[in-house]
């Protein structure tokens, strides 16, 4: 049982197989899974579970232990991070096709930010236990998924590094 099962108001909809058509539609349109064949997407969906959460539900809570990532199927979430004063700052939003929680899925570290439903959302969840099973039972899909996650996280790191350099340059310009 992953930690998502303990979030109040989150309704378990069952395994992802009934949602495989919707998952395939979304996954085919996002870069993370662009190298997956239809049968591989179905194989991946067999290891996922689907949930529905109402408006205002904190699906991911900053600082909590994380053992799952989610794929937004319907609806949107706001991504919120506390600043040094402990005040919530909106970092952005995400809609259908976006994945969230990949870092904690892989490293098991506490969640970096919170994700709050801006409307009713439907999500497909892959937890660490299921990821381990994919790697053991479907190594081709497991390796492909891990490579895609590695590339996604690498892209995000490059983007953040570029933003950091821009901030540092702007700060240098103000000091001069």
UniProtKB/TrEMBL annotation:
Chain segments annotated as transmembrane: none
One Pfam family hit: cNMP_binding
Taxonomic superkingdom: Bacteria
CDD domains membership: CAP_ED
Cyclic nucleotide-binding domain location: 32-152
GO cellular component term of the entry, any: cytosol
InterPro entries to which the protein is assigned, alphabetical: cNMP-bd_CS, cNMP-bd_dom, cNMP-bd_dom_sf, Env_Response_Regulators, RmlC-like_jellyroll
Molecular functions (GO terms): DNA-binding transcription factor activity
The protein, known as: Cyclic nucleotide-binding domain-containing protein
